[in-house]
Structures are given as C-alpha cells and as structure tokens.
Amino acid sequence: MPDVSIIIPCFNAEASVCAALDSVLAQSCGNWEAIVVDDASRDKSCQVVRDYVQQHLDANIRLHCQPQNGGVSKARNIGMELATGKYIAFLDADDLLDKRFIEKMLDCATRQGADFVVCNALRRVSGEDKGAIYPNVPENLLEKDDCLRIQDHKYLAFFDTCWAKLFSKDFLCKNKITFMHGMIFGEDTLFTNTALIKSARTAVMGDYIGYVYTESQASASKVIDVEGRLRNLRCYIEEFARQVPEEGRGLLCRKCLEYVWVIKKHGGQKRKVLLKELLSSKLWKDVIFPIVTERGRFRHRLVARLLGMGFLPAICQW
C-alpha cells in the first residue's frame, strides 16, 4: 500500500501536466502513487500523460480518462475512489510540489496523529514568485475545539483550498467528505472546511512552503462571472451552515462577508438588483444577517443593519 495517493485532476493541461508529474517523481519519499484524472480534455492532455506513463514505467502513475466532462469536483472524487494510499494529497495539473512535500507532511501527520496536515504555498504568476500565500506561523496542532473557534481570517485562509494538504484517507471515508458536484468555484473550500470541523486533530505548518500555486497573468486578471460566483458561494454557505455546530458558526462569517463583497466589488450595473435579491432571501435572513451582526467586525455589523433597514448605499462601506 502506498503511503500517499496524489490526485491530479487534469483538463486541457497538456502544457503543464508533465511538470506537475516531474515534481511528484522528484519526491524525496518514494512510496507514493499518482492518479491523473483527465476530465475529457479537448487538447492532447490524455495522450501527453499516456506517453509520460510509458516513459516512466517504474513509477506508480495511473491515468483515468473521463468520457465526458464532469467538472473538477467529480474528477477529484473519482481520484479518491481509485486511491489506495493511507493518505491523500491533491495537486492541480498546473502546480508543483516541493521535493520534500510527502516526507515532511507524512512526518507531521504521524508525529502529531493528525487527521490532516496543512502547509504553506508559494504563489507564482507568469514565472515570477510572489511570496508565500499564507501566514508564516510555526507548526501548530489544532484540537477540535480550536478548529471551531478560529477567528483570525488570515489563519482561516489556510483552509480555503484542498491543495497544500495531506488528508488521512480513513478520516475522509469515515466522515463521508467528498467534493460537491456542480460547484465550479469554492468547491475545495467547502471540502476543506468540512474536514476542519470534523477533524479531531489538524496540524498547520505555516513555516514550510510545500506547494507552488501557479497562475498566468491572464488568469490573474480575468473577468469574474459574478452570478456564477454568487451561486457557488450560496451553495457553500447553505451546505456548511447545515453541517457546522453552533459553536463553529463563526467559520461561516468569512464567506458571508465575501458574498456581499462580491456584489459590491463586481456587481457593476447589476449591483442594486443583486443586493435587493439578497436582502429578500432566506439566505440573508437566516444565515448572513445573523452571523455577520453577531460575529463580524463593528463596521460590517453596522452596515448589515443599515442594509437590513433598506439603506442600500451602505454597501459602499462593506
């Protein structure tokens, strides 16, 4: 049995997937398997990976090609079903692992008895390194109560993604933690936040950069699909609100704040309509308003109350 299954969802990544696999091959710890799930790519990704596997027959790399595009959530779930390792890590096809990723993450997981381990990541835009994404904090172990009471929004950012993590497969299976199909934004935040509230022990290594997150200048400046993003945020908020215990509802605050911020920042000519739709919804009345007025900062609490009274221009201060 491999120590770690590295799951790589792949869609139109013929230019980058080999570099991702090279970073897996370069690992200092050799007991791993890599599972590439091609999500019906329209380019030559499938053939590129197939050729790579043939060139590295001594490496434990498997390719699964989907007949139809099902989205990244489905691709990751398929990878989890195929995984045989004791632990699971996710690697996007255009990203890279540090060569000691498996070694250091496994050591931390076993030493701390953690359900999952989080490390820091380097942001790289068009080949230029932009520095660490998350706070540089020393290794820390979070017990269940600690996880539910995290208030520092910068610290919570560690749990926005499924990459730069190592999850116990038994932990994921026992708690039935999977990616929600149909979500195209925030699906990994919902996955990782669910793991956070169900974990008995979570280890954070903010002082170890084990992952390289890459993006092009074009993707960094792309236009946001506002309605699509709000739709996915709504899915996250509704599903997470259903799962999280009362003492952990503060974890929802960031996404509640983000929902209104997206309307403010990217709503454009539709801002007023989107805001009115939100203020008349159950999402606002049952979740966003009570959580923000209870857990948000003073400014957000005040603005939420003004919005609730129908003073729409207050959104400018969000």
List keywords for this structure.
318 residues; alpha/beta; Spore Coat Polysaccharide Biosynthesis Protein SpsA, Chain A; 2 domains; ten-stranded mixed β-sheet
Radius of gyration: 20 Å
Distance between the termini: 51 Å
Number of helices: 14
Shape: globular
Count of individual domains? 2
CATH topology of the largest domain: Spore Coat Polysaccharide Biosynthesis Protein SpsA, Chain A
The count of β-strands is 10
CATH class of the largest domain: Alpha Beta
Please indicate the percent range of residues in DSSP E strands (runs of 2 or more): 15-25%
Structural class: alpha/beta
The name of the CATH architecture of the largest domain is Alpha-Beta Complex
What's this entry about, in short?
With 318 residues, the chain is α/β, with parallel strands linked by helices. 44% of the residues lie in helices and 20% in strands. The protein has two domains: 4-220, Alpha-Beta Complex (Spore Coat Polysaccharide Biosynthesis Protein SpsA, Chain A), CATH 3.90.550; 226-317.
What does this structure look like?
The protein is an alpha/beta fold. It has 2 domains: 217 residues, Spore Coat Polysaccharide Biosynthesis Protein SpsA, Chain A (Alpha-Beta Complex); 92 residues. It contains 14 helices and 10 strands. Strands 1, 2, 3, 4, 5, 6, 7, 8, 9 and 10 form a 10-stranded mixed beta sheet that branches. Helix 8 runs parallel beside helix 10, helix 10 runs antiparallel to helix 11 and helix 13 runs antiparallel to helix 14. The longest helix is centred in the last third of the chain and has 18 residues. The radius of gyration is 20 Å and the shape is globular. The protein starts with a strand and ends in a 10-residue tail after the last helix. The mean pLDDT is 93.
